[in-house]
Design a protein that fits this description.
Subcellular location (chain C): Cell membrane
Oligomer: heterotrimer
Distance between the termini of chain A: 62 Å
Membrane topology (chain C): Multi-pass membrane protein
Radius of gyration of chain C: 21 Å
Number of helices of chain C: 15
Number of domains of chain A: 2
Main location (chain C): membrane
Protein name (chain C): Nucleoside ABC transporter membrane protein
Largest interface: B-C, 48 and 50 residues
Shape of chain C: globular
Chains: A alpha/beta, B mainly alpha, C mainly alpha
Helix content of chain A: 25-40%
CATH topology of the largest domain in chain A: Rossmann fold
Structural class of chain A: alpha/beta
GO cellular component, one term (chain C): plasma membrane
Strand order of the largest sheet of chain A: 6-7-8-3-9-10
Number of helices of chain A: 18
Helix content of chain C: over 70%
CATH architecture of the largest domain in chain A: 3-Layer(aba) Sandwich
Largest sheet of chain A: 6 strands, mixed
Structural class of chain C: mainly alpha
Strand content of chain C: under 5%
Chain lengths: 533, 322, 362
Amino acid sequence: MTLGKDTGRQATAAPSNMQAGVPAIELRGISKAFGPVQANKDISIRVMPGTIHGIIGENGAGKSTLMSILYGFYRADAGEIFINGRPTTITDSQAAIRAGIGMVFQHFKLVQNFTVLENVILGAEEGALLRPSLAKARKTLAHLAEEYELEVDPEAVIEALSVGHQQRVEILKALYRQADILILDEPTGVLTPDEADHLFRILRGLKAQGKTIILITHKLREIMEITDRVSVMRRGEMVATVTTSETSPEALAELMVGRKVLLHVPKATAQPGATVLDVENLRVTDGAGVARLKGVSLKIRAGEILGIAGVAGNGQSELLEVLGGFAPGKIEGRVSLSGQDLVLSGPGATGETRRAAGIAHVPEDRHHLGLILDFAAWENIAFGYHGAPDYQANALFMDNDAIIRDTEGKMARFDVRPPNPQLPAKSFSGGNQQKIVLAREIERNPVLLLVGQPTRGVDIGAIEFIHRRIVELRDAGAAILLVSVELEEILSLSDRIAVMFDGQIMGERLPDQTNERELGLLMAGVATEAGAA
Amino acid sequence: MDYATLIEVLGSTLRLGTPLLLACLAGLFSERAGIFDIGLEGKMLMAAMASGAVAATTGSAWIGLGAGIFASLLFAGVHGLASITFRGNQLISGVALNFVASGATVLIAQTLFGQGGRTPPLSGAARFSPIQLPGVETLAAVPGFGPFYAKVLSGHSILVYIALLCVPLTWWLLYRTRFGLRLRAVGENPESVDTAGVSVIRLRYTAVVLTGVLCGIAGAYMATSLQAGFGREMTAGRGYIALAALIFAKWRPWQALWATMLFGFLQAIALRPDVIEGTLHMKIPVPALDALPYILTVIVLAGFVGRAIPPRAGGQPYVKER
Amino acid sequence: MAKLPTWADLVLVPLISLLLAAVISALVILAIGGDPVEAVTVMVDGALGSPYGWGYTLYYTTSFIFTGLAVTVAYHAGQFNIGGEGQAQLGGLGVALVCLALPWPHWSIALLAASVGAALFGAAWAAIPAWLQAKRGSHIVITTIMFNYIGAALIVYMLVEVLRPIGQMDPASARFPVGAKLPNFGEIPGLSLIFSNKVPANVSFFVAIAACFAVWALLWRTRLGYEIRAFGKSESAAVYAGISPTKVIMLSMLISGGLAGLMAINNVMGESERLVQNASEGAGFIGIAVALMGRNHPFGVFLAALLFGFLYQGGAEMGLWTTIPIELRLLVQGLVILFTGALDTMVRMMLTPFFRTARGAA
């Protein structure tokens, strides 16, 4: 290991570097392995000061690991880091902050019941007493707000702020620590297109002031829109660094994936049958009294995929939970399945009764809902169906051998690797875990399949497989409700698209008669002319 | 119940509430930092034995107090090691240390003194003697407030006043200092502290040390002030009751004072069957009185007095995300 | 975190933990001026050196199997039941009420009825904390501890005011009728060739072994067991799968309390033959150590209970014949819980280097 030694503060001279052509950040030969997984392989990159540099790549390409190394969360196994031309050892976050690096994580690192000010000064207090620190921060924040369109009420408590505002607090935290290099990890994943535009204005303002910005994303549109240069990562390696104005989305996509991407899943036109799911004026109020669904109505027919587009947190999760039988809080409205009314709350509304009614559910969060990670694969195949007659030996006992045999079959049909029913779920890759969940839910031939974020954290090969299976199930006559925050996925899989915003359906569109722009507006709560549909 | 009886009961409320208060504040520091500590009981017990034994040997209550704090810190250190460094199960660690304390206290006291696991009775300078507050004699004559001042507020050992002082001190530390801000943050979201470049481990250990010190004072008070010496299992579940009070107080210092005094009052009442029978006009069996503080603890925990949200990161060891 | 082969995790970790506890205990014995070698000799001699010693060791083992299984069942549901002590005390009350109710014609019928009584009372004592946990989120660790204290007070009240025969001074129930006397190992054909008539180990030992099998089948072969284990691993996922948290918490705690209560057929019915104060003598707490040491598996519980039976009987002998106080047992118990339950990562980290080199060589 040959990392540099100097960890002193040396990040104040960005403008002079700009003239000298010294990169703000230079990484040389960074490698990092987690056990047998090589997350970063011999990565070198130069980021010039006063630019916005994009890093793009698929899930699991190693972008976040690389940035975590830069922020002192992990130590690289090999390689060197230079900040403003000086070799720098970054042992922990403290060292990164001293070197002038600020990081805005994908999952915010805020204390929910603290005020904005308290969050900003945490770790950067002036002295042992709080009052002077708070006073100083209040003043500094007012300046920053003016300079960069970063208005946030300094006395507001974080949990009362919107996601967009919380993100601003993260940026303020970094600026308050006088960061000259700002790293943003998938910053728009939780934002509406409108909020994202605002963020980009802020970033341009920061760039104009000479700050260096690294933007990590998997969205090509953002790279094209805002970056000066872009580096592409694939499977832990840096495959190319190009000037943004000299490339195209298609070229970048090919670099990311390593081959031509199929943007559209081959599927025949839907042959919809009778109405399967009929949701009327569904309202959900959660335990804290917040309205999550504000009168949602929708219909899905047999042999049809209804895609729900929307920014995360606009009620899609609650919709899946109500239909899946496990939403907490107060639920009103009417939901019927093939003409039979479903019980919406109380003891009659459980995952068990829903499965009995023919509703299968691939949940959004497979780690916390879909799987028991410590259970063996075969135990997970029985999960939720552990009461199924074919899994019982007699009135008293389950038939574990039958479940194992069934699991072997399912693993073969869904190409789960390694095909070993005894392995615990946690030792499978994301894609194979999702195949286990999918095999369990699809193979019981449900009347209705609920599926949330089917390809989140799934490698590209598995994505195609999963999409094909969903379409096959549709063609076999099932009704499918697809929730995804990936617009591309919604556009390529759905037969109809409904857009959710703030607990309501903003409108319905047909995939071949709409585009990302129009859907984006609906996702931001802006109704377009045809929105009355 | 007449005024004179009430004064007496309130006086013993403060006396009996003090160890609960100290233990409750001890738990507050720990839990605010995200470390569950079911082992308050064991730390108090160890401190009671250590202070009782050392005070008996040296004849000094103060040296006894030091020994109590040291013993409690030792246990706090093991709990810290298990819950912070080795990311073990905090509940199990606390429970285990309580058993170790139960065994070790009797073992040591028996070896040292051979009196069936007790320490010898303390007297004179080996105990903390009551302190008269200034102006007691002049104020005592004032009707109403006079007796309250003389018999409830005045006449306790120094440790009672230290415990009371710890309340505003804790509040100030928690809400007005950098340390307090970081402590509260680390119990809510340790990642926020870590990414801000502050050591989660050091903060949590500091909290655990404070917990140890306060439990040490609580235990020493039991043996050298409330009683005259250490006796087997003398803490009798006070560590657990303090935890219930902490939940009741929603992890806030002033509320902790009121909550522990409420439990102190219950214990004081339980010692006065005559008062209860006089008030309720019926005979209450002694075991029922003994069980009263425990029953009320359950009622408090049942949340019939309002829901409590614990610090969000409580009980979870901190592991940097992959 | 350190990764070990499964067998090492299951066998080596508890053994090393035990070794660490033993080393610390030996140091403590030295510190208080005792002789660890003498202590071990006395313990082994007293607990395993004679059929008489075995008779006591297996008697304690029986109790610890029940309380260890109690902790195990709750643990799989993610519930930490440290109310086994109170539940065992209440189980004793159930046994006493059943045994004193009728002039039982034969011990087998009496055992059946007393088992039901013991389990019901133990379960009832776990029911309130369980309900409060399920419905109000009250911390089950603290509530079950409180119920230990409340249970102790209740037993005192029952013994002093209700069950004590007129004219008797000590707070205890009347002696159970002869028909409710369980045969001890000295009275069972076959075993009587080895054991004398004086040993406390009795037929409930076989009930305990049956309970091990029953708990194993429950946890790994039934739907309820599946639901208990799933819920214990992930509450949110269990709810997604249609598993009712209330049902799992209630049933697992009722079974747990029932098992702890069932212990009373050993000590109250099989040994003292009347209900006395503090009949369970901390066996409920030892169940925690037994469950952790036994890795929450019934077979492990059986072995750990045997070990603690030895420690208990040996410890008693040690308290009798050496200057070392009997409370050392409590210390060992605490240390075992500490090392197996809270410092297990440390133990694993100590072991990892050995396996790394072993694998590297292979």
